[in-house]
Amino acid sequence: MSTTVMSDAIVMPATESQQLATKLIAETKVEFVKCESCGLIEECTPEYINRIRERYQGKWICGLCSEAVKYEIIRSKRLITTDEAMARHMAFCKKSIMSGQKTDPTVDLIDAMKQILRRSLDSPRRVRSTPCSPIRTMDDTVGVGLARSESCIPDVTYVVELEEMMSDQNGE
């Protein structure tokens, strides 16, 4: 098996590269698609639209609703399917739309982002067995022989000074 390596650079005039870019953009087909959950209209390629529809059982949902569906799965106290999470989110969106308030879609998007942020801040965090950086008291520090930091020399000095200070206070 042989391999050919091309190492020569090809110089292309700017007008030629612009024409090539324009041609590639023209060949890329883009379609407008409306979210079946919130009604947001997005501009996407047919391939992307098909991938999303495959993922969500033939329904098109926008990126924000997709994130909301993922969050609904995480937030649920019991294990739920993507279909069930999507049904919950779509019910929420329908209820919001049916409330009769005609608002600007931008405001709706901002409100939805605020709600997702609030939910994420209110949801319980994963519990770790020990914190990343446990808080130590003064007594805990004295027991530590060598505490590791960027350089161990300052810590050695600090521990020695602390031990001397403690022995002076105890009258030893």
From TrEMBL:
A Pfam family the protein falls into: DUF1677
Protein name: DUF1677 family protein
Protein source organism: Artemisia annua
